[in-house]
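Annotators were shown the component list below and the corresponding predicted structure, then asked to write short factual statements about the assembly.
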Amino acid sequence: MTALVEKRGLVEVRGLEKRFAMPTHFLSREKPVLHALNGVDAVVRQGEAFCVVGESGCGKTTLGRIVMGLTEPSNGEVHFDGTRIDNLSDSRRRPFRARMQMVFQNPYASLNPRRTVFDTLAEPLRHLSPQMRRAEVRDAVEAVMLAVGADPKWGRRMPHEFSGGQRQRIAIARALVTDPEFIVADEPISALDVSIQAQILNLMTKAREERGLTYLFITHDLSVVQHFGDRVAVMYLGRIVELAGVEELFDRPRHPYTRLLLDAIPKLEGGSFERERKPGELPNSIKLPPGCSFAPRCPLANDRCRAERPALLPAGPAEVACFAVEEGRD
Amino acid sequence: MALLEVRGLEVAFPKGPHDEALALRGVDLDLDPGERLGVVGESGAGKSMLAFAILNLISEPGRISAGSIRFDGRNLLTLPAKEIRNIRGNRISMIFQDPMMTLNPVLTIGRQMVETLQAHRRIGWAKARKLSIERLAQVAIPTPESRFDSYPHELSGGLRQRVVIAIALLTDPEIIIADEPTTALDVTIQAEIMSLILRLCRDNRVGLILITHDLSVVAEVTERLMIMYAGKVVEEGPTRQIIDHPGHPYSRGLLAALPQRVERGQRLNQIPGTMPGIADLPTGCAYHPRCERAIAGCHIDIPELEAHGSRRISCFRPLLAGAEA
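Structure shown to annotators:
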């Protein structure tokens, strides 16, 4: 872990907030607002696999999209390699687009069904490096296909001819074709079968080793985090509640929500589902509770937790946003 | 005799004008009263097809082309429709992945529960309401009296799936078939729902057929396990035994591919290639093109499901170390 601490930050987000206006009811004056992100600060260090975990609605996908510039933040900043990029014009942002790429969850939706595989892979180069000659583009596409274990003959075919795993290989090839330094991967294996998940994870590990990639890896699957990640941020209702090295987090989860998550993982050894569990639901991101968002489900919550919002503070080698941990009540 | 006994079940789909492809290729299954069986496979392996076939719910253009399904001694495939209805949704209940496949969005939860009860027995509204509220309480739904009058859209995904379980339990079924009941839910909600299903089945001696792609969930909940590949059972036996000592190379491959099975940061053990579709199966064992143990005969003959101690494996070269344990 110490070696990582000295590595510089490649991507940094500061005070990120995102609010989405929700449809209003025609009889109501209320303008409901969904709070997807409520102040997220994080640094992704050069060369690491930074994982973001959390359940649906925690804001992990919004975070990834804001970093990539696909969604505009309501507040806060995104920095890439020392430059603030969230407020750049399209043309000034273009050089950064080649350096950061994204892999989406659903390879059935993320590939254009009317384009051949070759055109899909050549498009980022034609767009971002217009000076490249046709032969150069062709060579680059062929090289990246070989790198992801795709037959270059696939180039003439259409996406619908491929299985989910093959499509995800193509999507990864598209992300790698501009030779980026940084990849946001949003649940890249969740839509795939178990035997294919291993293929894709191995491919992403290999790409990382060969190209020195930095990943922002968004997932709900903790066993994948444990295998793949270096550091992990646990999100709950638009905030990071715990940030730690992966081994530290699994050996010593500190935040009560992290503990609940780890405790909920089904295990091959069995025994996790023996205990009765009361229904705990995510509170709604439209009406957030005033204090700690997790307080309504938290076994350690007291009056302070229900009134004030805990900040993300160092706790041993980790960072935790929890009054119970702060006060030693955990 | 087992409570449910499936023999040689085949489901066929048309492939071209004169040809058919088999989605299930001769599946046997036994379930004793109160037994919990897991059915695991990748998408397209035929596990959901098996669930629908057991309830005789295969819709056009598919059809059950061979085999028998005996429940309590009677063959469901030859039973008159009226008697099937007396079994389906009554003595055998089903829980689907999407709770909205069960719930009608325009009716209150209470109305749907009362109607379910009244479809299967003579019972008055007041009594049916009381029983429904009891079941809602049993699946730990907060304030069941007020939830009785809620519409499905007023509940979260986790609560909806609890309501579906309450409906499945209404008629005191002997078997529940659950098809990926938690796949659409978050991990903390999955743990709640699966521990609920486990406890309800165990306490009331309800048989469970749990269909899932998740080996860890099966390990937590079931006693016996069936692994399917390309429409066939490749291995069947006590869950613990298969997970600790898989006997079929595919079972071993699936287990070995899980991230929890390798050291952190090490390469995962991947199975090369993909499962073939039902319309273009290879000759011989359907798994042989991906199998690391395949020998010359594997691409010629289809291996039978043969008994090895307390389990059955369909492979010419099963991994038998520890299989008899």
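Statements collected:
1. Chain A touches chain B through 46 residues (CB under 8 Å).
2. Confidence is low (pLDDT under 50) at residues 1-5 of chain A.
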